Amino acid sequence: MRSAFRQSVIVLTAGAAVAIIIVLSMQLLSSRVITEESNQSEASGPNISILTSDAIRDQSWGSFAFTSQVMIRDEFGIQAELHPELTTETLRDYRTAKEAEDGADMIIGHGREFAATFAEYAPQYPEVEFVSLHGETNHDNHTVYTFDVAPTEVLAMTAATIKSESGSVGVLSKYGDWRSRELVEERLQELDTELHYEVVEDRNDTEKAMEALERLRDAGADVIYSRGNTFNRYVIQQAAEDDFYVIGFIDDQSYLSREHVLTSIVNNVPLVYEKIMTDYLSEEGLTGGTVELSAEDGVFYLAPFGPMFSEADMDELKKHDSRVLRHLYDGSR
């Protein structure tokens, strides 16, 4: 009797286990089907990859690759893959080739360092559209989108001369990344202001950047235009401690120290991506060559000046550039 009861229990238990397994399997299969259908839906548009050498951090150049990825999804309904921290030529080569082999329709390089990589791979993958932010191109399927912030930098540095007590300002930048030096130097010479210039190899190398900052300060610079994305927050922190002024970069960085950030050169990078996507999806498509964007396109502008600028400073700035005065009063861009 007991033996028969045990057998019944075993049979019922085994049956229940089998039923549970069947239910779980059906749920898993259902989930898999939904996921596959979702993926197919997401992949129905063009296959786009964004490559950046930077990490995705707040207030960094790399962070704009992420915000641009989100913009592409929200504004165009297209899923783009983002591949960060491609810090070496080998990594950039590998990822570019892999994305092309995996069927990417368009590969966007988030910085001029990708232009040289795309120059090599564009002829090998003529069916792929390559786009780089800044750089040079010689291929029909490689388009460069660029913008020249030199006039805005000259404007900011003109304002810097008003707040410099030493008559000496400094620029801290990544090696090979600052293209406005000659124009800025010419302007500063007109204003009897000395320019000191220091570079670092990596915009993420905070230690080297702080060493370069110390050299600029030792040379007498009391206003620093820091073009370092990641290391800017440390430069501004040092400015707050040692009481000198900074011009921010990429984003309006006055929130880091309102009393020490004169202004910032702001890049609205998602607008560049919006232009890329609009051109790519247009009837004409991308045509290769270089697309030069301007301040009128809204892709860069000067952030509002800080509270350290007095009415007397405004009057002095008016003598140099009427556009500066308009900016001070109404924030016009």
Automatic annotation (TrEMBL):
Pfam families the record matches: Bmp
Coiled coil ranges: none
UniProt-annotated location(s): Cell membrane
Membrane-crossing residue ranges in chain numbering: 9-29
Leader sequence segment: none
GO cellular component, one term: plasma membrane
Swiss-Prot/TrEMBL keywords: Cell membrane, Lipoprotein, Membrane, Signal, Transmembrane, Transmembrane helix
Ranges of residues in domain ABC transporter substrate-binding protein PnrA-like: 47-321
PANTHER family named among the record's database cross-references: ABC TRANSPORTER GUANOSINE-BINDING PROTEIN NUPN, TRANSCRIPTIONAL ACTIVATOR PROTEIN MED
Name used for this protein in its record: BMP family ABC transporter substrate-binding protein
Organism: Alkalicoccus luteus
